[in-house]
Write a structure and sequence with these properties.
- By secondary structure, this protein is of the alpha/beta class.
- Helix content is 57%, strand content 12%.
- It is built from seven helices and five strands, in the order βαβαβαββαααα.
- It has helices at 14-26, 44-52, 71-83, 100-133, 143-156, 161-168, 172-187, and strands spanning 2-8, 31-36, 58-61, 87-90, 95-96.
- It has a five-stranded mixed beta sheet with strand order 2-1-3-4-5, with helices on both faces.
- Helix 6 (161-168) packs across helix 7 (172-187).
- The relative contact order is 0.09.
């Protein structure tokens, strides 16, 4: 069975997700998992696809960066697929791990992709440092102050910290920070 996996990093990338879905359907994927989350975020659809595939199946992605965030992560995914005797195809590279050449190319390309990502992050850090030095960098708006009152109200209504975090689309750690700040302000 051909099983597809599609991912975009943000909710705004609807067209990118649609393009991946169409490409996966075009090659005959019978089942497709998709999600809109950062590569470093929790990836439930990838986990579900990995759990679903069985011996003889092939997991297909449109691009390597849609699947793995690093060479190590790619290696973990490939190892898990190999343990289940499941193949991997990357459409834009014409890559198929069903043969030795495909496995070699996957490792080489994974290393290049990681290098490229690290270079991009380095350029980003340099750009931020330059903007800060010029007084142009403001950073993102803190969500803590904006959502603190909502969080306190929701917690007061009996919701758990995890439920509040999910409802407000912030981390559970932010809830603890908000409570700490809120408690300190009330104590003064």
């Amino acid at each position: 069975m051909l099983v597809g996996y599609a991912r975009t990093s943000t909710l705004e990338q609807v067209a990118g997700l649609e393009a991946q879905r169409e490409a996966l359907k075009a090659v005959g994927c019978e089942r497709i998992w998709e999600e809109q989350t950062s590569s470093v975020g929790v990836r439930e659809a990838l986990k579900a696809a990995m759990d679903y595939v069985r011996e003889g199946d092939t997991l297909i992605v449109t691009k390597l960066d849609r699947l793995a965030r690093s060479v190590r992560h790619l290696g973990e995914i490939v190892d898990a697929l190999e343990a289940k005797k499941v193949g991997l195809r990357v459409l834009d590279l014409g890559l198929d791990t069903g043969n030795a050449t495909g496995k070699l190319m996957l490792n080489v390309l994974g290393a290049v992709a990681q290098f490229e990502r690290e270079m991009m992050l380095e350029r980003q850090r340099e750009g931020i440092a330059k903007a800060k030095a010029e007084g142009k960098y403001k950073g993102r708006k803190p969500t803590c102050g904006i959502k603190a009152l909502q969080a306190v109200e929701l917690l007061g209504s009996g919701m758990t910290k995890r439920e509040v975090a999910m409802k407000l689309n912030i981390s559970e750690r932010s809830i603890y920070r908000m409570l700490s700040v809120h408690t300190n302000h009330q104590a003064k």
